[in-house]
Amino acid sequence: MLRNICGTAYRSIFYQRKAYANSSAVLVGKLGFAHSTQPAVDSQGIETNRMSQVANGQTGLLPPPKGLVAPINVPQKLLMGPGPTNVSPRVQQASGLQLIGHMHAETFQIMDEIKAGMQYAFQTKNQWTLVISGPGHLGMEAVLVNLLEPGDKVLIGVNGLWGKRAVDLANRLGASPLALEQEAGKSLSLDEIEQGLSKHKPKVLFLVHSESSTGVMQPLVGVGDLCRKYDCLLVVDTVASLGGVPFFMDDWKIDAVYTGSQKVIGAPPGLAPISFGPRAVEAIKSRKSPVKSYLLNMNELTIQWQCGDPSIPRIYHHTPPVNLFYALREALAELTEEGLENVWKRHAEASARLHAGIRSLGLKLFVQNESDRLPTVTTILVPEGIDWKKVIQYLMEKHKIEIAGGLGPTVGKVFRIGVLGCNATPEKVDRVLQALKEGLEFAKLQGHL
Ligand SMILES: Cc1ncc(COP(=O)(O)O)c(C=O)c1O
């Protein structure tokens, strides 16, 4: 076998290795080689002298990071940007509970309760309702990687950054994305969607319900029927809206949806709840090629989440962030206790109060058409001559309040203010408005903090 690999050259290496029992042989060029001294190692594979040198401070061990000697510093801030939002004390407490194993019965019960809570939040009876261990982006990857195969056509509504991101992702997966473009600040009409579907006949239509980069909400009523008419699956991104506005997955005939834990739901970032309807499950099960991701393969992950027959035992797929499950479970418990309709109403009222306050400051909203405005994330035009960065900096430094600038097509043009989860209250809205008023005055004076 030695001869098969390297012939005589390899044999000569072999003999020299024997001669230098404790030294390394380094191949140089094709046939020749040099050798260098290899340090002796102990039974754990560590150089024999190293640990005594470490103890005597003689070796090149990197110094311990100084910052880690001090206690962790997490100041109180009011998060009024497009997310994440602050979490309630109950959610905060839950995430600090002691860890238990991901295959323990108690964790399975928490996962089942999350599943039921997400079915309620999505308004669906879908069995394949579960949570991806990762941020909203991974929810996007999960729907696309499971539903698309190389060459599949996917029509994507692009009126901001998130639609663009989906195009990028679909390209990476080897699918054929087609952008159904709309001006930033406007939603797509049913007619425009139907024209796209009839022209391209895609396998999947992807729409962003809550385009948080522009503050636009995409109306979804009637889109599911169009998708059935053109034999296409409807996928919706609800990362910045779910819980804050009415949403009915089953009634609106949506085939796959995902969201993020850190927005209206009010849990820490790092989880992406997701749901697949029967048509989407069928499409995944009848794929010609395997799903191009291990972590996101729904055929397997749904077993750990026991999304099918309860008599089929759960099988380990990966180790999920169990502490985040505690937090999400409690956030969903709060949502359930308050009642979805009341949470929608609270967000609508907070948004209306914010919009009225914006107008009374003499500012203008970026989204012209009132019915296109996303209640959870509001985009406000930066007034002429104002340095938007100064305003944002003022709010953070003077009030510890976060608001955001634009993103994607709105960079430099807007401020983005979110009323999400437990921050969708009149008191928080008034605080951000007061701070914004001061921030604008400060920026007008071109002051330095
Ligand atoms: C509509 C939308 N989709 C996707 C994402 C990505 O979520 P994440 O930052 O959790 O990956 C966001 C984040 O703001 C979003 O608003």
Automatic annotation (TrEMBL):
Q: Name the family the entry cites.
A: Belongs to the class-V pyridoxal-phosphate-dependent aminotransferase family.
Give the keywords, sorted: Pyridoxal phosphate
Query: Which residue intervals define the domain Aminotransferase class V in the entry?
Result: 100-432
Know the name of this protein? Aminotransferase class V domain-containing protein
A Pfam family this chain is assigned to: Aminotran_5
Q: Which InterPro entries match?
A: Aminotrans_V_dom, Aminotrans_V_PyrdxlP_BS, PyrdxlP-dep_Trfase, PyrdxlP-dep_Trfase_major, PyrdxlP-dep_Trfase_small
What are the names of the required cofactors? Answer: pyridoxal 5'-phosphate
User: Which SUPFAM superfamilies does its entry note?
Assistant: PLP-dependent transferases
PROSITE patterns documented for this protein:
AA_TRANSFER_CLASS_5
Record field: transmembrane: none
What Gene3D superfamilies is this protein classified in? Aspartate Aminotransferase, domain 1, Type I PLP-dependent aspartate aminotransferase-like (Major domain)
Alphabetized CDD domains for the sequence: AGAT_like
